[in-house]
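Ticket closed. Logging final result for Two-component system, chemotaxis family, sensor kinase CheA.
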Amino acid sequence: MTHIVPDQDVLDVFIEESRERLSEMEVGLLDIDRFGESSDPEMLNSVFRSAHSIKAGASLLRIRSVERLAHYLEHALGRVRSGHISADSDLVTAMLEGLDALRDLIDAAPNCTRVDVSDEVLCLREALGRAECRAPSATIDS
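Final structure:
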């Protein structure tokens, strides 16, 4: 597998912006966890857009591990944003763990260091699956 090393200045900007977005996402997710359905919808939109921006930047720089994890977060947030699932404590906890893992991946990017985040990805996917099962459309009428 070929790893293309991006321009250091571009990578530095990506890392700085991503760290800021991750901090904002953490505040937003904690707000969503605390206030549930009554949290500000714009907060959820902001968290979603931040995940999308990190994913897009990582894609541009070909940092695939960051891109994939950001995609999982974006997907989960999109399902919540569309109203298909609720952001319950289980899902928010998994997303917060995903943010921590994303932060580790971003911090490792300048040195091309491998970071194993498979547990966090699995946790997020499982929490999303449980949320999908609890969604009203997942119930079967008798």
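The chain has a mean pLDDT of 90. No further action required.
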